[in-house]
Amino acid sequence: MDKYDHKTIEAKWQRKWEENKINVVDIEKAKKPFYNLWMFPYPSAEGLHVGHAFASTAADIYGRYKKLCGYDVFQPIGYDSFGIHSENFALKIGEHPKIFTDRAIKNYERQLRAMGHMDDWSRTVTTSDPIYYKWTQWIFLQMYKAGLAYRAKANVNFCPECKTVLSDEQVIDSKCERCSTEVTKKELEQWFFRITKYADKLLKNLDKLNWTEKIKLTQKNWIGRKEGRKIRFGDIEVFTTRVDTIFGATFVILSPNHPLAGKAKTVVNPATKKEIPVFVDEYVMDSVGTGAIMGVPAYDDRDLAFARKMNLPVVKAKLTDKVFGEKMITYHLRDWLISRQRYWGPPIPMINCSECGWQPVPEKDLPVELPFIEDYQPKGAGRGPLENYPEFYKTKCPKCNGPAERETDVSDTFLDSAWYELRYPSTNFKNVPFDKKITKKWLPVNMYTGGPEHAVLHLMYFRFVAMALFDMGYLPFAEPCERFFAHGMLVKNGVKMSKSKGNVVNPDEYIAKFGADTLRLYLMFMGPVENGGDWRDTGIAGMRRWVDRVWQVINQKLENLEEGTEGMLEANKLVKKAEEDVERRHYNTTISAMMVFINGIADSNKKVGRKTLEKFLIVFSMFAPHLVEELWEKLRGKDSVHSQKWPEAGKITTESSVVVVMINGKMRATVPAGNKETVERLAKEDPRVAKYLSGNDIQKVVFVSGKVINFVL
After folding, report:
1. Is 457 helix (H, G, I), strand (E, B) or coil?
2. Handedness of CA 272, 273, 275, 277 (dihedral sign)
């Protein structure tokens, strides 16, 4: 039997699936809706990288499983195409952002289609399309009308490299989350969303969400709710959560932006009645309580370090239960700064009139379209490039009809993506952002897959916008998704992938050489999805050898197929194993179980029943959709494997007849079941295992009776 011809077969089935609209769901007539969403990509560089392929494949397998389980799965795709990510790359290569983005999107679509995902391409959204950002601007106007959008002068984060302001969430360890440049402070007048009004709701609702725990904890810490007391030290009000330590307070520290910074030199401790010094230091933030704290070096490590640095006394005063000051609740969360002094984004739909002040653009005049301009480079002077185009900003006041000017800043890209899940099912509706009936039927999202790096960026804003729209009466739910699953990160040969290291993996060459199905299988075989994985070229080559083996074994069995149930026990075990693994995204162990199954039927003299092969192929179809569709056609001669129902596991004995042998978590062989000593001996004698053990120290042997033995080297 020839090797699997991936180029011919994958192209064949991708074309047929498109022609037969096998992945298109009838949004209105679906009886058992399941919304499976993957966090859409920025089309911001040379194209899709293997990290995208890893995350999207993990989501696709889950969607395929739900479809096999009888759900009408809606799995849309789109592009987060506005914003600094796309614009910076366009600037780097000297190409207009619109021209570059349009070209990049076509390349992304080609790559995503080549992966064989069951995406519904009939409902794509692109955030830089006026049809889409008309409604992004509409959301801004609803926020403004509800008192949740306001303009204010404030000390804001400014990235000198990106030449724009940033929200607090876009500053990581004092650096720009995009370019890692040290962020400075500037006093500018900007547009904000009042997300702090929702701090308690954002916090309390986390306990109800079936989300990855790490994401929930990160959001809790970022919201940073603290209960304490506001105590007056002379003219300065400090905030503390440890009022019981007040007798040990030997100094006060102000944030650099505190109104009394540099003015007050000493204050009186209200408990000891002693005069203590006042300092200014950056480790006290404006966002912490009152922007002033009492220094208690005997009970706080940071205060102790500061006291030693300044030669201040450390007083081990006893704790007190005496009450001082007023109760106060404070949050780390600050209002969301959405203005950006860039070009590539939706213009903020506000007009400034010298007589009437700031006025919202009438909804009938949306969208305020972003003009195609030549001088789109950011200036870094506190205003966006659109300020140089009077043909854009000169307009009439919607209230008095007098001369007025449009806002020339654009809104943050995270506003574009804060509501996209609402648009996907309603892309056919032109006069509303999302249809009420369709939205009620399909949302909240049933399963959302994405990266943990967006825990307090996209995911916080995503939740806030849904809550605000719920309170305004536009949505029947306050939380946008029921479940969120955070995938891990890929590295290459143990090193984080980056362009500077030249080790970013482009999936194109691997799809061309090994096929999309092999790539999908290899990515999912690295380990549990939440852990990410370590890409190695030798690994994908090994997976391709296994794919060829599956192709040859199944084709050989098809030539001499039995109509009975030979081999059904192992097929039932595989089905049961897959059911356990898919919900946890432990796809690697399902693949190991499929390897065991193929080893079990590989003997050319061993008969296999038709129903047995059907069960195996249905499970395998989630991982290798093209190869399996071809084999299914040979087996059944009609219909599609992807339209089948998930098989029942049937009767399963408690003990397996074979044990999987793993080395450092990767399957290398199978041996007959037995006690630990017997299995370990058989494994070490197996040449497929011995070659890996030779010359290495075995640190630990993990044995699970009847299932697996793992040698940790």
Report:
1. coil
2. positive
Between residues 134 and 84, which one has the greater pLDDT? 134
In the predicted model, what is the mean pLDDT of residues 472-491? 96
- Name the burial class of residue 415, with classes exposed (0-12), middle (13-18) and buried (19+) by CB atoms within 10 angstroms of its CB: buried
Residue 263 backbone class (left: φ over 0; alpha: ψ -120 to 50; beta: rest)? alpha
In angstroms, rounded to a whole number, what is the distance separating the alpha carbons of residues 97 and 175? Answer: 25
Rounded Cα–Cα distance for residues 143 and 149 (Å)? 5
Yes or no: say if 43 and 104 are a contact pair by the CB < 8 Å rule: yes
Q: Give 91-103 pLDDT, tens digit per residue.
A: 888 999 999 999 9
Structure tokens, 145: 């009308």
Nearest to 556 by CA among 634, 443, 444, 663: 634
For 48, 105, 115, 321, 621, the CA distances from 53, given in Å and listed in that order, are: 7, 16, 8, 58, 17
Flag whether pLDDT at 657 surpasses 80: no
User: Which whole-number Å values give the CA distances from 464 to 189, 380, 456, 632, 646, in the listed order?
Assistant: 23, 29, 11, 46, 37
Q: Under a CB-based contact definition with an 8 Å cutoff, are residues 382 and 149 in contact?
A: no
- Side by side, the strands of the sheet bearing 658-663 are 666-672, 658-663, 708-712, 700-704
Length of the chain: 713
Give the residue, 246 or 658, on which the prediction is more confident.
246
Average pLDDT over residues 440-460: 96
Q: Identify the residue whose tokens are 């969400």.
A: 209
Cβ distance 44 to 92 under 8 Å?
Answer: no
Give the Cα separation of 62 and 180 in Å (integer). 34
Which pLDDT band holds residue 678 (cuts at 50, 70, 90)? confident
Would you tell me how many other CB atoms lie within 10 Å of the CB of residue 660? Answer: 22
Q: What letter does residue 661 receive in the DSSP assignment?
A: E
Whether 523 has a pLDDT exceeding 80, the answer reads: yes
Q: What pLDDT was estimated at residue 656?
A: 59
Place of tokens 């001082």: 324
Longest pairwise C-alpha distance within the chain: 96
482 vs 212: CA distance, rounded Å: 11
Phi, psi at residue 543, to the nearest 5°? -65, -35
651, 572 Cβ separation under 8 angstroms: yes
* pLDDT of res. 706: 80
Instruction: Measure the CA–CA gap between 619 and 611, rounded to whole angstroms.
Output: 13
DSSP annotation string for 129-140: SHHHHHHHHHHH
Distance CA 373, CA 445 (A): 38
pLDDT digits (tens, 9 = 90+) for 586-645: 999 999 999 999 999 988 778 899 999 999 999 999 999 999 999 999 998 889 999 999
